[in-house]
């Protein structure tokens, strides 16, 4: 039960926050990805900390390192926020990814040792480590019922990536699974938002 509790939480918390999730879905452009986020505009809007998912947001599912364009975007973001105000909040914080960040972005930190998203624990820990209120943290995620929902539960700002990085040539079955999962989440949110 413990390993699947975050999935059940996604549905129950998702139903509770269904109207906010629907608004987020409706407000997000279908082709949105991380490159369309302007770090300067985010900072000017009051965002002081970024929490980034990895799979789909920085690279395809299961990739060991971020894509070059995501690396360039993180460098621009680091110039505005500072590396110590950018966190990686992934449900899969692998050692290889940690090592890559330690070598390339040593100030950025992984959040681990907390319950998986959509539980708000990771964002609460982010706020504690950064010394900021949760309302100034933006969670950037490609999943409505994990990272975006965690942000709503925690009182942080959700940013939904609607066009995630997908590399079917790298891991076709995993990518297909998560593509279907994302589509299922959108369908669920549309269906329950009318209740």
Task: Describe this structure as you would to a colleague.
Helices cover about 50% and strands about 10% of the residues. The protein is α/β, with parallel strands linked by helices and about 200 residues long. The protein has one domain: HAD superfamily/HAD-like (Rossmann fold), CATH 3.40.50. Helix 5 links the parallel strand 2 and strand 3. The longest helix is centred in the C-terminal third of the chain and has 21 residues. It is globular. The two termini are about 30 Å apart. The mean pLDDT is about 95.
Indicate the topology.
Blueprint: H1 5-16, H2 18-27, H3 39-44, E1 49-52, H4 68-81, E2 86-88, H5 95-104, E3 109-110, H6 121-130, E4 137-141, H7 144-154, E5 157-160, H8 172-192
Parallel strand pairs: 1-2, 1-4, 2-3, 4-5
Helix pairs in contact: 1-7, 2-8
What is the name of the CATH class? Alpha Beta
CATH fold assignment? Rossmann fold
**Into how many domains do the coordinates divide?**
1
Order of helices and strands: HHHEHEHEHEHEH
Question: So what's the overall shape?
Answer: globular
Using only C-alpha atoms, the radius of gyration works out to 16 Å
Structural class assignment: alpha/beta
The residue ranges in which pLDDT falls below 50 over 5 or more consecutive positions are none
* Major sheet details: 5 strands, parallel
What is the count of DSSP helices, taking H or I runs of 4+ residues? Answer: 8
* Span between termini: 28 Å
CATH superfamily, please? HAD superfamily/HAD-like
- The average pLDDT value, as a whole number, equals 94
Strand content: 5-15%
- Order of strands in the sheet with most strands: 3-2-1-4-5
CATH architecture: 3-Layer(aba) Sandwich
- Percent helix: 40-55%
Number of strands: 5
């Amino acid at each position: 039960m413990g390993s699947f509790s975050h999935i059940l939480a996604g549905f129950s918390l998702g139903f509770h926050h269904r109207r906010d999730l629907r608004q987020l879905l409706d407000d997000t452009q279908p082709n949105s990805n991380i490159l369309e986020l302007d770090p300067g505009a985010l900072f000017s809007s009051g965002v002081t900390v970024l929490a980034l998912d990895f799979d789909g947001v920085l690279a395809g599912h299961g990739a060991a390192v971020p894509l070059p364009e995501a690396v360039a975007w993180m460098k621009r973001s680091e110039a505005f926020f500072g590396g110590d105000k950018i966190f990686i909040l992934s449900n899969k914080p692998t050692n290889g990814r940690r090592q890559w960040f330690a070598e390339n972005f040593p100030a950025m930190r992984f959040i681990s040792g907390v319950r998986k998203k959509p539980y708000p624990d990771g964002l609460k820990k982010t706020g504690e480590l950064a010394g900021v209120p949760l309302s100034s943290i933006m969670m950037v995620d490609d999943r409505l019922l994990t990272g975006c929902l965690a942000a709503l539960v925690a009182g942080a700002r959700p940013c939904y990536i609607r066009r995630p990085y997908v590399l079917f040539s790298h891991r076709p079955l995993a990518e297909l699974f998560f593509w279907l999962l994302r589509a299922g989440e959108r369908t669920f949110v549309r269906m329950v938002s009318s209740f």
